[in-house]
UniProtKB/TrEMBL annotation:
<feature type="compositionally biased region" description="Basic and acidic residues">
    <location>
        <begin position="162"/>
        <end position="172"/>
    </location>
</feature>
<keyword id="KW-0964">Secreted</keyword>
<keyword id="KW-0732">Signal</keyword>
<dbReference type="GO" id="GO:0016020">
    <property type="term" value="C:membrane"/>
</dbReference>
<comment type="subunit">
    <text>Interacts with PINK1 and PARK7.</text>
</comment>
<dbReference type="InterPro" id="IPR036400">
    <property type="entry name" value="Cyt_B5-like_heme/steroid_sf"/>
</dbReference>
<comment type="similarity">
    <text>Belongs to the cytochrome b5 family. MAPR subfamily.</text>
</comment>
<keyword id="KW-0256">Endoplasmic reticulum</keyword>
<feature type="signal peptide">
    <location>
        <begin position="1"/>
        <end position="31"/>
    </location>
</feature>
<dbReference type="Pfam" id="PF00173">
    <property type="entry name" value="Cyt-b5"/>
</dbReference>
<dbReference type="GO" id="GO:0005783">
    <property type="term" value="C:endoplasmic reticulum"/>
</dbReference>
<keyword id="KW-0496">Mitochondrion</keyword>
<dbReference type="InterPro" id="IPR006311">
    <property type="entry name" value="TAT_signal"/>
</dbReference>
<keyword id="KW-0349">Heme</keyword>
<keyword id="KW-0479">Metal-binding</keyword>
<dbReference type="GO" id="GO:0046872">
    <property type="term" value="F:metal ion binding"/>
</dbReference>
<dbReference type="GO" id="GO:0005576">
    <property type="term" value="C:extracellular region"/>
</dbReference>
Amino acid sequence: MAGPASRRRLRRLAALALLLALAPGPPAAWAGQAPRPAERGPPVRLFTEEELARYGGEEEDQPIYMAVKGVVFDVTSGKEFYGRGAPYNALTGKDSTRGVAKMSLDPADLTHDTTGLTAEELKSLDDIFTKVYKAKYPIVGYTARRILNEDGSPNLDFEPEDQPHFDTKDEF
């Protein structure tokens, strides 16, 4: 029977495998090249759960969006991973923060809720959020839950994410 240390190693290997599977090649810095500036996308916007659900990869002519930590990313360039019938399609059209943290496609984990995640899962979430999603996919908006409090008032702690193409003057 595997002990806790073996399970941690296995989970770390799974995280690395996911990162490598999602990356089309080594980062430019590994290849000795300067990173390309990101293309400037449309201004970011606020997404309700219903609006985000429209971008789940089911329509061929629609972009594919998913949210992690309340940040909505355009993952259309990874259509082979996120498009209809693809391995990670279940993550699209919603905030799948918990699923990303747990490396789970279980429908119960495809939620924004991080309650009860372990310190290791939270670290994994931060690593994947930064090294995969923020590094690779353009930010197109935020979930309403990230910007607004439950009573509809503005979340005064909200700060937009940094990305090379992100410009706060275009925000909303």
